[in-house]
Amino acid sequence: MNYMKNMIEMKGVNKWYGDFHVLKDIDLTVSKGERIVICGPSGSGKSTLIRCINRLEEHQHGTITVDGIELTDDLKNIEEVRREVGMIFQHFNLFPHLTVLENLMLAPTWVRKVPRKEARGKAMHYLQRVKIADQALKFPGQLSGGQQQRVAIARGLCMEPKIMLFDEPTSALDPEMIKEVLDVMTELADEGMTMICVTHEMGFARTVADSMIFMDEGQIVERASPAEFFENPKHERTRLFLSQIL
Amino acid sequence: MNSSLVWLQRNLFSTPLNSGLTLAALYLLWLVIPPIIEWTFLQATWIGDSRTACQSNEGACWAFVDARFSQFIYGLYPEAERWRVDRAFILLVILFAALFVLGFRRSRVVATILIPYPVVAWLLFYGGIFGLEVVETSQWGGLFLTLVIAGVGIVASFPLGILLALGRRSRLVVVRSLSVSFIELVRGVPLISVLFMASVMLPLFLPEGVNFDKLLRALIGITLFQSAYMAEVVRGGLQAIPRGQFEAAESLGLSYWRTMRLIILPQALKLVIPGVVNTFIALFKDTTLVMIIGMFDFLGIVQAATTDPKWLGTAVEGYVFCAAVYWLFCFSMSRYSISVERKLDTGH
Questions:
Q1: In this structure, are B5 and B146 located in the same domain?
Q2: Residue B212 and residue B283 in one domain
Q3: Does residue B157 share a domain with residue B31?
Q4: A51, A85, A89, A95: best mutation site toward chain B, by most B Cβ within 10 Å?
Q5: Do residues A185 and A166 touch, judged by C-beta distance below 8 A?
Q6: Which of A1, A139, A217, B332 has the most C-beta neighbours closer than 10 Å?
Q7: Is the pLDDT of residue B183 over 90?
Q8: Contact B253 A107 (CB under 8 A)
Q9: Are residues B301 and B330 in the same domain?
Q10: Could B348 and A79 be called an inter-chain contact, meaning their C-beta atoms sit closer than 8 Å?
Q11: pLDDT tens, B19-63?
């Protein structure tokens, strides 16, 4: 695998919500094809961190560079980065007024200007990959949570992004639906997608992640390989967190 | 037991109190309905050429409405030219029929069919081209004028209201404060004063010799006025859309305008259909206020006709007829909105 190129580079990133310091001096590099799992207690800034990568949140200090493009107030840069970065949300955020197929075709046809026929073919291809092609003409409201999240993943993939961000993709799902979503994510990881995933699914993290990041109070406390992270965490706070969730 | 008897027993006579109320209501209806039917139909006079023809009967003098009917519809529009109004109306009906057949979802087809219509209608109504005689807007009147004002008001205030609602939620300070000031200013004054401004004050501010049509001024006044209300209705819908929808659209790289047009507005507008139609209905009825700046809309022309010496004492018939027509239009709008709501429901 090619680890030469840095897909994401965050240097000295700081962010405040009013007086609240959410991100403190974040330094993070992610190489092409790398799979990173971020965990940490709630309110530790994990979601905010990945939402800064596609500028759903603005950072106030430091630099974030995604695939060679620096994120500034320049709307052009932001839209260019967003084309290359797919994001999966905790609550799916499918467009309820459009069918599954239309959800998938929307961004490719309007943003990438792919001809409709081609966009439809691609949409069906990705729906097949997440094993849900038979639901293409239904509305999101008619699907189960697990199915909706798989559609959301397919929607992200239709833009053929270089990076996928997952913001707690399984935490709004009923337990019996978690596996079907994790399976799709594992497959994606096996194909070499650059992924950053905020999740508490430690089983998934152990098998898929190249490195684990533990965050607490807005800081990256520890970054290590899964083996080291789970067997031999360096920091007291990491140990405490792991003892609580495992 | 018979099922309708069961229904009666369950719904109307379930308890002594309920039975009492049912009987009281029936008695009230018996008091009110027969006289209404008597007046409206049984004792009414249908044909005649003056009030005297109605004196033999106790009931309504519909002869008045019959005699003045075409004036109620066209106002003072010259009789020889009234076919132009009819043509425009028939054209509109044909266009809508075509839209139903083609389906509203094909937005491009809809646009190409509907956008030229106002121009065609204006040329037909006003004339001055293709050998059509000019009919000044001061001669327009009756139901025709009411429909022109309501139609233009509805069609123009809707998009303007959407833009104002988006402006009010914009991140750009200038756009936001302009939108807020406009909405709050307009909502703070009565429509009557806006119309007076448009018809009396505006010409004072315009340079000598510049004068534009009174109807046009009234149309602009009504449109701006209603767009402020529309903006607030639409804003209610925008606020009901979860943040996640904006974020999902943004994360896919959609620009602001595409996010609004493709994702947010279709959902927001669907939510506020009842409020939007409410505003349309209010607008339709508010058009009667153009009476006070000297235009003879439907209500105005009916009222003027009741002062005709030949028909003195027929005001009640005139107003009842008016009310029935207004009700018919408003009720149709309300039913239509319900059917649109059902059609757009995607089960969530």
A1: no
A2: yes
A3: no
A4: A95
A5: yes
A6: A139
A7: yes
A8: yes
A9: yes
A10: no
A11: 999 999 999 999 999 989 888 888 777 887 877 777 777 888 887
Residue B40 is predicted with a pLDDT of 84
Instruction: Indicate whether B77 pLDDT > 60.
Output: yes
Dihedral angle computed from the Cα positions of residues B4, B7, B8 and B14, in that order, rounded to the nearest 10 degrees = 160
Tokens linked to A73: 């107030």
CATH of the domain at B314: 1.10.3720.10
- The answer on B304 and B254 residing in a single domain is yes
**Into how many domains does chain B fold?**
2
Residue A4: predicted pLDDT? 53
Q: Which of A86, A110, A141 sits opposite B258 (nearest CB)?
A: A110
Note whether B152 and B180 are same-domain residues.
yes
Note down the domain range covering B15.
Answer: 1-42
Residue B164 within a domain: yes
Query: How close B249 gets to chain A, by Cα (Å)?
Result: 8
CA of B271: which chain A residue's CA is closest? A97
ipTM of the complex, rounded to two decimals: 0.90
Please name the amino acid found at residue B106. Answer: R
B118 lies in some domain: no
Nearest by Cα to A48 from A202, A219, A204: A219
In a domain, B310, yes or no: yes
Considering the entire predicted model, what is its pTM?
A: 0.85
Q: Taking a C-beta distance cutoff of 8 angstroms, is the pair B151, B284 a contact?
A: no
Same domain assignment for residues B38 and B161: no
Asked if A96 lies within 8 A of B253 by C-beta distance, the reply is no
Q: Are residues B29 and B65 in the same domain?
A: no
Interior CA angle at B43 toward B38 and B46, to 5°? 125
Q: Which of B253, B254, B267 sits opposite A96 (nearest CB)?
A: B267
Position B305 pLDDT exceeds 70: yes
How does pLDDT run along chain A (246 residues), one tens digit per residue? 444 578 999 999 999 999 999 999 999 999 999 999 999 998 899 999 999 999 999 999 999 999 989 999 888 899 999 999 999 999 999 999 999 999 999 999 999 999 999 999 999 999 999 999 999 999 999 999 999 999 999 999 999 999 999 999 999 999 889 999 999 999 999 998 999 999 989 999 999 999 999 999 999 999 999 999 999 899 999 999 998 887
For residue A26, the model assigns a pLDDT of 93
Q: b or e along B65-91 (b: 16 or more beta carbons within 10 Å of the residue's beta carbon)?
A: bebbeebbbbbbbeeebeebbeebeee
Tokens linked to A40: 């940490």
B245 with A95: Cβ contact below 8 A: yes
Tell me, yes or no, whether B49 lies in a domain.
no
Nearest to B251 among A56, A91, A140 (CB): A56
- Closest residue of chain B to A81, computed from CA coordinates: B253
Q: Which chain A residues are closer than 8 Å to B253 by Cβ?
A: 79, 82-83, 107, 111, 159
- Which of B250, B252, B256, B348 is the best substitution to test chain A (most A C-beta atoms within 10 A)? B252
CA distances from B106 to A24, B98, B255 (A): 50, 12, 22
In chain B, residues with a C-beta closer than 8 Å to the C-beta of A96 are 267, 346, 348
